[in-house]
Structure prediction request, 432 residues.
Amino acid sequence: MHNRPQTPDFSGYAEQVFNRCDALALHSQSYEGMDRRYLTPEHSMANLQVAQWMTAAGMETWVDQAGNQWGRYKSATPDAKSFVMGSHIDTVPNGGIYDGILGIVLPISLIQYLSDNKVKLPYHLEIVAFGDEEGTRFGTTLLGSRAITGLWQQQWAGLVDAQGISIEEALSNFGCEFSQIQDASRLKDKLLGFLETHIEQGPVLEAEDLPVGTVSGIAGAKRFKLNIKGHAGHAGTVPMTMRADALVAAAEMIQVVEEVATELGVVATVGKIANYPNAVNVIPGDVEFTLDIRSEIDSRRDTVLEILQQVLGQVAEKRKVTLDWKMTHSANAVACDPKLQHLVSNSISAAGYRQFTLPSGAGHDAMAIADICPVGMLFVRCEKGISHHPAESVMVDDIEAALKVLNNFVRFYQNQYQEENQVSLSSPDLCA
Ligand SMILES: [Zn+2]
Prediction:
């Protein structure tokens, strides 16, 4: 990069981010751990607070028809395109105060810095606080980000929460209209890209002794329910050689899952198991367990699945049980845009840190936004990789590092934007 960044002092802004994460934590449905769900009064209060900070940073603000809070740091060129930063403002029950929130509060303080230093950009820089990513109220994830991609489905109107309140009703109580949800969608040709800053939710950056890292992509996940049927029988009377013990078969299969996944470079987890009849003196006749398998590369994940189907089938045959697979979830991997990855990595090294690239095993808003524009992600180290838990913790020094990186990113992106803009001006045949 020819434009060498200065190294401004971001310590005050980092303190601001740190304190604001604490301040947003006050808007929780529970006193024990965070709990802020989509379209609740707590969501509304959090939006208001975020909008106040956006306004103080010189942004214009609005809430879209899906309840997402937006802010725009306007370019001097009114019809300029927008680059968007942001993440989600909802939390899981008994969650932490940084997951999602950091990716909203951090760029607001960056814009506060730009505004304090009278920095003007050739494009609009927008921040979005998505109302729902976790899906804990209505059981469907990424509702906020999917609304801006225009991919809400009509049947979602009838999704209900634990109290029987439908999305349609909840939106209306929030001041939005399900019938107007298309108004929340953004035009592809007006968006330059999306950069999401998020806590890593894993232990890799900590192990690498790094504050931040570039995300290469978001793993695609498939989930299954596996059912094993053997023969229940008396624990005392059926000889060992004449059994079809479903739980022992499951134990061997779970071990095979671990071995194959480790060997072939994917992550696979058996997280839930049910054993029937689950009695002290009965040979287990029926076992159901789940399998969650993820990879940044869909074809690798699917190859591993084929191998697992074959090997687990052999285990079933050997143990005289039947095995039935049922897929319950499927999402493809999303690659981060190579140009944005490159800019993020350069921004990291220009801030004085070692470049490091890692995949995301967890889903993020950027997955949905990838449908309408290039996406990038910056991960920030979190203590012991803990997330979705009140013990979630981020160091203020790492927030400062992330602010420096985002500031470099904005400068580098500006250079790239201006170069590309000149190209398109001198080449009228090129479509935007
Ligand atoms: Zn998150």
